């Protein structure tokens, strides 16, 4: 339960600047990082699954509920990020407020959150690529584009089982190579892609609005099937839990703190700015998508936007948007991989993971060994695990991280009330408590299988901590001295 003082965390980040991460990001780039990661898989794939299986057209309400919980958490993140502007985001914040054991729990949880989130996007990227190429009569073998736990129906009606999702694994490998080359180059690539994605979303909303069929909104919240979480208000809440992971973007902003030029000013701007932009776009996009096509049409589809566009006369728009989605997904994978390796960097610096994960590339100054390991792990997930499973795993990991950040604000306001806070959460303790309650509510509506996977992952993390991390903790060793 040893805690790191804020002064110690800042001192560690400041020392040996030659070997530290390069500071190259400003507020505008941070907002783009947040938007780039948030405006991705949730909007273009998970939205359809949430509507078809849980909420119907009411998925728009699910996004509002998820955004509300994220808003509370975002304010807490912004205060922490302005106080402790170093790599590690929620992991570092937990170290300062709750102690090493809780820090490890949240850090290990974030490893799951980023890894599985990245795999979610890669799987959806593969499905959109398959549709895009098929329109040009380039047919990829179905067995090589879906996981072994999924089936696909061929044009002749034959049902085939998947073997491995090769495109999903391949895009993870390619983006890993880009991330290893450096943050500044990654940020420039991301900025170009984000502008393209936002443009595509706005075009879809503007053109699609005129072809909405009001009949698709009846009923707006389908009657519950008798099973908890399947339509009705319980379904809306379960869908909110499923789509929650898409708001992971501002956690990635916080994880980039040590590469930000003026973190005390820029991080709150990046975190809150990206959340506001994405919440507006998500609500409008979900409303148009469920108005163009009946929510039942999105069942078992990782490419619901393509289905919705078929309901408009703009045949050219379908291919243009799918191409833009493919490019946009690429930026999401890029930022996910970047934020994940920075998490490993922070944990390794504290001795809780082997030192190799904080080794920087001699030329690019990036934690390349972490990138290589994560590429392997995420690539395997993307190749062999179905989309709905990885989406739910990411959501519950995100909710747990946000919950602990909100709790950390309550603790730090009591234990260190006089600390410098360039940004302060208003209405404390109300805002952090509301954040905790909203996160707990959405977690309660997640399927039991998702909870089981989370517990198994955390149990594995505990084994690693007690077998390696606790013995090699830098803070623990200094305390014993």
Distance between the termini: 17 Å
Order of strands in the sheet with the most strands?
A: 1-2
Helix-strand makeup class: mainly alpha
Q: Over the alpha carbons, how many angstroms does the gyration radius reach?
A: 22 Å
Spell the H/E element sequence: HHHHHHEEHHHHHHHHHHHH
> How would you characterize the largest beta sheet?
2 strands, antiparallel
Specify the number of helices: 18
User: Which regions have little confidence, pLDDT < 50, spanning 5+ residues?
Assistant: none
Shape: globular
Strand content: under 5%
Question: What value does the average pLDDT take?
Answer: 81
Structure description:
This protein has 481 residues and is an all-alpha fold. The protein has 18 helices and two strands. The radius of gyration is 22 Å and the shape is globular.
What's this entry about, in short?
This protein has 481 residues and is mostly helical.
């Amino acid at each position: 339960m040893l805690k790191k003082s804020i002064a110690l965390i800042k001192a560690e980040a400041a020392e040996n600047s030659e070997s530290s991460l390069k500071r190259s990001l400003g507020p505008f780039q941070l907002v783009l990082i947040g938007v780039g990661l948030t405006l991705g898989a949730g909007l273009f794939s998970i939205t359809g699954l949430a509507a078809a299986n849980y909420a119907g057209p009411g998925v728009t309400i699910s996004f509002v509920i998820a955004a509300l919980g994220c808003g509370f958490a975002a304010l807490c993140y912004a205060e922490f990020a302005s106080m402790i502007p170093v790599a590690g985001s929620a992991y570092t914040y937990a170290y300062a407020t709750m102690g090493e054991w809780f820090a490890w729990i949240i850090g290990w949880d974030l490893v799951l959150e980023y890894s599985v989130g990245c795999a979610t996007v890669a799987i959806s990227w593969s499905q959109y690529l398959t549709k895009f190429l098929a329109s040009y009569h380039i047919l990829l073998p179905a067995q090589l584009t879906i996981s072994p736990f999924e089936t696909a129906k061929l044009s002749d009606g034959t049902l085939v089982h998947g073997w491995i999702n090769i495109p999903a694994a391949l895009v993870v490998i390619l983006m890993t190579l880009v991330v290893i080359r450096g943050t500044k180059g990654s940020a420039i690539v991301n900025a170009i892609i984000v502008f393209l994605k936002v443009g595509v979303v706005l075009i879809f909303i503007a053109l699609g609005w005129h072809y909405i069929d009001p009949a698709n909104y009846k009923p707006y919240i389908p009657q519950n099937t008798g099973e908890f979480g399947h339509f009705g208000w319980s379904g809306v809440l379960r869908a909110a839990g499923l789509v929650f992971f898409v708001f992971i973007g501002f956690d990635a902003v916080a994880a980039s703190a040590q590469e930000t030029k003026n973190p005390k000013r820029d991080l709150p701007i990046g975190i809150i700015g990206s959340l506001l932009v994405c919440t507006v776009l998500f609500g409008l996009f979900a409303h148009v998508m469920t108005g163009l096509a009946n929510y039942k049409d999105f069942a078992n589809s990782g490419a619901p936007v393509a289905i919705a566009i078929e309901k408009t006369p703009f045949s050219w728009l379908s291919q243009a948007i799918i191409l833009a989605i493919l490019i946009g997904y690429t930026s999401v994978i890029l930022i996910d991989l970047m934020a994940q390796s920075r998490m490993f960097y922070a944990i390794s610096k504290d001795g809780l993971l082997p030192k190799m994960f904080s080794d920087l590339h001699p030329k690019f100054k990036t934690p390349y060994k972490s990138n290589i390991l994560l590429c392997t792990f995420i690539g395997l997930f993307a190749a062999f695990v179905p989309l709905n499973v990885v989406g739910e795993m990411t959501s519950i990991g995100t909710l747990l991280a946000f919950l602990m950040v909100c709790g950390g604000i309550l603790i730090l306001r009591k234990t260190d009330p006089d600390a410098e806070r360039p940004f302060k959460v208003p209405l404390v303790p109300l805002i952090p408590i509301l954040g905790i309650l909203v996160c707990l509510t959405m977690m309660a509506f997640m399927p039991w299988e998702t909870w089981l996977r989370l517990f198994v992952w955390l149990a594995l993390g505990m084994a690693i901590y007690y077998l390696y991390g606790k013995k090699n903790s830098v803070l623990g060793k200094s305390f014993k001295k």
